[in-house]
Every structure is written in structure tokens, then in C-alpha cells.
Automatic annotation (TrEMBL):
Residues 16-202 form the Aminoglycoside phosphotransferase domain. It comes from the Bacteria. It comes from Paractinoplanes rishiriensis. Coiled coil: none annotated. SUPFAM superfamilies: Protein kinase-like (PK-like) (SSF56112). This is Aminoglycoside phosphotransferase domain-containing protein. InterPro entries: Aminoglycoside_PTrfase (IPR002575), Kinase-like_dom_sf (IPR011009).
């Protein structure tokens, strides 16, 4: 249906301007009932959108600053691939103190979502020790030597507790004010080991040297696999070093 679906949010709706950064989705500022919001149109399944919108409503009720789905007139949280969400004001993090606040928000996300069910069709990094595919990832498309390095990095996370990870907590996906840290763009959120979210500028999460190395290697391996094979993924794979004994040997 495309953007015609926006009419399901009522008569007083309009697209305002496109937002930068959308790759898998078409993202716009919209007005709904006179207030500024964000509309995101994409091709995700209803099951996927139900998982994401349910998570965001839960996190909002728990006190995290996240985009909250705005129901359509009939009460649905999405329609024909379109989700309309509240707009979060704020600025991206700049200082080491800002990034420490981001780390705190991520750790609260992780605490609140222990035992959360996996996003439909997704796999965690440690799942990929045993399987080759999940959502965007197809290890069969990567060089075997690269797969061995990625799996060696993920094997260091085996046995750890899992939770929802944001999946892409870069500067552009954070909106800060004096009293809260907002996390936007939950396209990459899934259930995984929390370390993947904690490779932050200046080691803002305060990981020890060994913990930071484990997290950084696992994160580089994940980004290589999930983006394969563009220039960025090749660069990230180059950061995943070989180990003396790779997974499966």
C-alpha cells in the first residue's frame, strides 16, 4: 500500500520531510493530530513488527526513553508495513560523560529484558556457532576463513546470559537531554549477549581490558557478518583477528 497507509492514523495526518539514515526503511517526519511524529515504512513482517512495537511499549512503561508506537485509529500499532512513533527531542552524545550516560541506559535495557524472546527469524551471535543463517546473516556467503574467525570471536561469549540488545548504539541513534538518554532506531535490536552493545567510545561502559577485547572482537565479527559483503563489512572483518585455535578445530 505504501504511504497511503498513513491515512489509517486519521484524517489529520501528513508527511512533512524525509529523515536521513534510513537504509532498509523509508523514514519521514509526519504530523498526526497536530503533533510531530516519525513514520517508518518498510518490508518487515507483521511478526517482526509486533515484536518491536511490543518491546518499545514495554520499555516506555519501564521508564526508558524510546520512540513509542502511536496506534492507528483502529488501535493497531502498525499497518501495511508502516509504524508511526513519537518523536524524541535531544542531541547526540559528545563528551565522555555523555557516553557514560549512554552506557547506563544500555545496561538498564539489558537488565529489563533478560529472558526476552528472540526477534522472529533472528539468531544471536552464539546461535551462529551452530547455524549459518538468520535474518540478514548468511555465513555461507562469507569466506570460510572469515567465518572461522567470526565464530572464534563469538565462542568467547558462549554461556553468558542474553537479553535484548539495541544492536546499533552509535552517536546518530542517541538523543540526549539534561534529564534522559533516548535510544532510537531499533531496526537491529534482537536477543543476544549484552557485550555487543557495550563497545562504546572511550570504553564508556568501563569494561576491563579482557572484557573490552572480547566485546570488541565479537562486535566486529557481528557487523562483518550482518553487512556482508560491502566495504564496511570487509573492513570490520579485517579487525577480527585469527586466534591460535579457531572455533570447531
Amino acid at each position: 500500500m505504501g504511504w497511503e497507509a498513513l491515512g489509517q492514523w486519521g484524517a489529520d495526518v501528513a508527511r512533512v520531510e524525509p529523515l536521513a539514515g534510513g537504509v532498509a526503511n523509508d523514514v519521514w517526519h509526519v504530523r498526526v493530530g497536530g503533533r510531530l511524529a516519525v513514520g517508518r515504512l518498510g518490508g518487515r513482517s507483521d511478526a517482526d513488527l509486533a515484536w518491536e512495537t511490543g518491546l518499545l511499549r514495554y520499555l516506555d512503561r519501564a521508564g526508558l526513553a524510546v520512540p513509542v508506537p502511536i496506534p492507528a485509529v483502529d488501535g493497531r500499532l502498525f499497518a501495511d508495513g508502516l509504524v508511526v512513533m513519537t518523536y524524541l527531542e535531544g542531541e547526540p552524545p559528545e563528551t565522555p560523560a555523555d557516553w557514560r550516560r549512554v552506557a547506563g541506559a544500555l545496561r538498564e535495557l539489558h537488565r529489563l529484558t533478560r529472558g526476552w524472546p528472540q526477534r522472529p527469524g533472528w539468531r544471536s551471535s552464539t546461535d551462529l556457532l551452530r547455524v549459518e543463517t538468520g535474518t540478514k546473516i548468511d555465513l555461507g556467503a562469507m569466506p570460510p576463513e572469515g567465518v572461522a574467525r567470526c565464530r572464534a570471536a563469538w565462542a568467547r561469549l558462549a554461556g553468558r546470559q542474553t537479553c535484548v540488545v539495541h544492536g546499533d548504539p552509535n552517536r546518530g541513534n542517541v538523543r540526549m537531554t539534561a534529564d534522559r538518554v533516548g535510544l532510537i532506531d531499533w531496526d537491529e535490536a534482537h536477543v543476544d549477549v549484552p557485550d555487543l552493545d557495550l563497545v562504546l567510545p572511550g570504553n564508556a561502559a568501563g569494561l576491563d581490558d579482557g572484557g573490552f577485547d572480547i566485546a570488541a572482537q565479537a562486535s566486529a565479527a557481528w557487523e562483518a557478518a550482518v553487512c556482508w559483503d560491502d566495504d564496511y563489512s570487509v573492513k570490520r572483518l579485517a579487525e577480527v583477528r585469527a586466534v591460535r585455535k579457531a572455533y570447531g578445530q
